[in-house]
Write a structure and sequence with these properties.
The chain is of the alpha/beta class. A hairpin with a 6-residue loop joins strand 14 and strand 15. The strands form 6 sheets. A 4-stranded parallel beta sheet has the order 2-1-3-4, with helices on both faces. Strands 13-14-15 form a 3-stranded antiparallel beta sheet. A two-stranded antiparallel sheet has the order 5-6. It has helices at 16-21, 25-39, 61-68, 82-85, 89-102, 138-168, 202-214, 219-228, 249-257, 285-292, 369-381, 387-433, 439-468, 474-486, 488-494, 498-506, 515-519, 543-548; strands at residues 6-13, 42-50, 76-79, 106-109, 119-120, 133-134, 180-187, 190-197, 264-265, 275-276, 296-301, 304-309, 341-346, 352-358, 365-368. The chain is built from 18 helices and 15 strands. The radius of gyration is 34 Å and the shape is elongated. Residues 16-22, 312-321, 521-527 and 532-567 have low confidence and may be disordered.
Length: 567
């Protein structure tokens, strides 16, 4: 040891929390420095690792690679103990130590388990081979490395085992998914974690499910609407988003498939079995099923929950002939009450016969495209709106406008509060930096500061964009609404774009009508009682009306709450 002059000190704790509360880097550094001083060694560099011991890649490899480089002139590698060097067992230990020995760098620990002495079994004959030279402490080192691995296994078994158990009791043991936040509560099983709606994110998740459940929007349209509401990705979780990124169609699909949003957890820790959580979901099971359109279905019967994934190809939402058969989403089959399909058949003479049909569920219903359009036009011509009901509608619109304005101001206030919280975090982090002297801890703190400043910049941009949005002129908007409700038949007949015409038609209903409902109505008493969804308590979002009037909504959440009835 006396011949050695330059040394490297390696410090490692399993987690950042352990580094702050238990076997801290500062404590290990102090012990290594005292050991080096006693042995007459000069520590050239310290390596500090705040990483998990369960990773396949050994964190200590970086320090070993440094020692292997001859230009660094390292003679000795100092660690506190073998379990701080690796917890990968004897195999990992031997691999790392062999690399150091090949570079003629001695590995020593301050507890003295690793001995630098070597014995040559042929020394009495004056002969030496590689196999005849060994370290007396090698067996002790191997046993210590295996003990460290066993200790890690025991710790992980206790921790993960408890988390699996509590997960199966309905609690949440991971990072909260987008739309949720964690909350610790008192339970019969002690203090446990549940999920509660996130003050900002939950509304985006609810809107995704609700818009998709209506069946009136494509995924592209829903994605655009959610992004217009101000959605930005959190950057964590299983859907693979980057922080601050807008919603994509692929991310939308991954969101609506997650059963956790219906209060059902199904994952590896539940044995891939669906279990009811100890907290409410953001949407109901019914809304979840409608939003997934039959591709994933949650069923509850006799206290048992099942989740069925249907082959996606059967229910693939094809946009083929979308323009040619626009009422596919808005008129149901009179036999099974499922959406009608549209296709064009070819006769023997080569003539084309476009028609709506439903033939795959044990029945055969078919109506020509022209008959469908004539029936729709005739049905709409029979509908009239009472002037008294129109006045009620305007009052509801005005009330919704006030609510929307209040929500706009509330969102601005929320952004101010979030910015203030981040600024407070920056202040607290700066205060901590003033008392730290560990380079690694300072590095992590500086990275946190950079992230906080970036987050504040993003929030400031969102606030600026939101502040530029102004509530729509109520008088001009009411004028558009009056024109629409008083000239519904004319607007429909003059609308040249089939898909827009079908969407406007869909606003007339509380639930999609069947073809028989449309064909059987009379001017006095329509057979179908689901008419007038726009003015019913289950009214659709008013932004749909704006879209059909050629306007784009600049405020969100504007809804009509009016009990108007058609007369």
């Amino acid at each position: 040891m006396a011949n050695h002059s330059n040394a490297v000190g390696a410090i490692r704790v399993s987690t950042a929390k352990q580094g702050a509360e238990g076997d801290s880097p500062e404590a290990q550094k102090e012990q290594i420095e005292r050991f080096a001083a006693a042995k007459g060694l000069e520590i050239k560099k310290f390596f500090v690792f705040l990483e998990s011991a369960s990773k396949e890649q050994q964190p200590m490899q970086e320090a070993v690679d440094y020692c292997k480089d001859p230009k660094n002139g390292v003679d000795c590698f100092i660690i506190k103990s073998i379990d701080r060097f690796t917890r990968g067992g004897s195999l990992s230990y031997d691999l790392l130590k062999t690399q150091l020995e090949a570079a003629q760098v001695k590995l020593v620990d301050i507890y003295g388990i690793i001995s630098s002495s070597e014995i040559n079994t042929l020394e009495h004959l004056g002969v030496e081979y590689k196999w005849s030279v060994y370290s007396p402490s090698k067996k002790s080192e191997i046993l210590e490395a295996e003990r460290s691995k066993d200790e890690l296994r025991d710790i992980m078994t206790r921790m993960i085992g408890a988390e699996v158990r509590y997960t199966r009791l309905g609690y949440w043991m991971r990072m909260p998914p987008y739309g949720y936040m964690s909350k610790r509560i008192d339970t019969p099983n002690g203090k446990r974690t549940i999920l509660i709606p996130h003050s900002e994110e939950a509304r985006y998740i609810k809107a995704m499910f609700e818009l998709r459940a209506t069946g009136q929007y494509t995924d592209d349209e829903i994605t655009r609407k959610i992004n217009d509401m101000g959605y930005r990705g959190r950057g964590r979780g299983r859907i693979g988003e980057r922080a601050g990124s807008p919603l994509s169609k692929g991310h939308l699909w991954r969101f609506v498939r997650r059963t956790i949003y219906a209060g059902i957890n199904m994952e590896k820790w539940t044995g891939d079995r669906p279990l009811r959580c100890a907290f409410d979901g953001l949407v109901s099971v019914e809304t979840f099923n409608r939003a997934n359109k039959g591709r994933r279905v949650i069923k509850e019967a006799a206290g048992k929950i099942t989740v069925e994934d249907v082959e996606e190809a059967r229910y693939k939402d094809k946009n083929v002939r979308k323009e040619e058969f626009p009422y596919k989403r808005y008129v149901m089959c009179p036999e099974c009450n499922r959406p009608l399909l549209g296709s064009v058949s070819t006769g023997r003479s080569g003539k084309k016969y476009p028609a709506y049909h439903c033939t795959k569920r044990g029945h055969n219903f078919r109506i020509s495209k022209q008959d469908m359009e004539d029936t729709v036009d005739l049905f709409v011509s029979k509908l009239k709106l009472s002037p008294k009901r129109v006045d009620k509608l305007y009052k509801a619109v005005e009330e919704s406008w006030r609510e929307s304005k209040a929500q706009h101001e509330s969102r601005l206030g929320d952004l101010d509060a979030r910015i203030l919280n981040l600024q407070n975090e920056i202040t607290a982090t700066v205060q901590k930096l003033k008392v730290l002297n560990n380079e690694t801890a300072i590095k992590y703190m500086e990275e946190d500061l950079t992230g906080l400043e970036r987050a504040i910049g993003e929030l400031e941009s969102q606030k600026l964009a939101l502040a530029e949005e102004k509530p729509r002129d109520m008088k001009a908007f009411c004028k558009k609404v009056r024109h629409m409700v008083e000239h519904m038949e004319k607007i429909l007949s003059q609308q040249m774009e089939p898909t827009k015409k079908a969407k406007l038609f869909g606003l007339l209903f509380d639930r999609p009508p069947t073809y028989a409902d449309l064909a059987g109505g009379t001017a006095k008493k329509p057979v179908f009682t689901g008419v007038n969804a726009l003015f019913s308590p289950k009214s659709k979002n008013l932004s749909q009306v704006e879209g059909h009037l050629g306007l784009e909504p600049r405020t969100h959440g504007l809804r009509v709450r009016c009990s108007n009835q058609l007369s």
